[in-house]
Design brief:
The protein is built from eleven helices and five strands. By secondary structure, it is an alpha+beta fold.
Amino acid sequence: MSTRFFGQYLLEKGRITSQQLLDALECQNDITAPIGAMALEKGLLTAAQLRQAFEHPRKRNQSFRDVLCEMGLLKPAQIDALLQGDMPHRLMLGEALVLKGYVTLETLDKELKEYQKESERVSAEIAQAFSNLAHKNIVKTFTDLILTMFTQFGKQNIIIERCETGKEKVRLFRWVISQKIAGENVQFNCVLSVPPKLLLQMASTMLDETISAPDEIALDATKEFLNIANGTACAKLSEDGVSLKLQPPEAKDVVCVHLAAPDAKLEVAFEF
């Protein structure tokens, strides 16, 4: 049972290349003008026309709105209608892929429909997996709060990929933080395993400064990140009559040996 972001879905289906995905993601971040995105979505501009507008030389202090009008692509009244009553939104990945010319609108529409069907199916499977757990309320609450922390404070979009049981299902990354949580009838360790990139994002958020090195300072900040999420989860569960207490976070001593084959990478991990 797994779910993926739309870009990863297209990549695995062979509809786009990894470089095209990176280009589209960069395009998403670069384009802040909502007019073009909304005009593309409503069919007032084609991807080719929008691409021409972005590439059109601008005069000093000339706005993107003025460029569209100057090129005769949109009239002022059309732009006003687009902005009136509609909240500006970030360019969607699919729109960026069309804008870059990597997929057609017809392909995008077809793939989006198939992706939505798969996402609905997988979401139902994940919900069923959670419902089968012995401590489903605890697992779901703690997971939801960690996702919330990433979204609201880490500015990182995180999704549930799978829900499985068994030690053999654990995939350990370079940095692992473990926190012991105990209640009257239950005791467990909540383990967060993250790659360096996410560790640095979490640490930078907690310390309110840019952290560029995955060191002990970053690890301590990440422990606090997990502590806040878990503390909030405990408070939420107490409303349902489940009393849990946090123990000080513990850093697991994990040794990761990274291996490589000619066409693949793998690693072996030892937890002491």
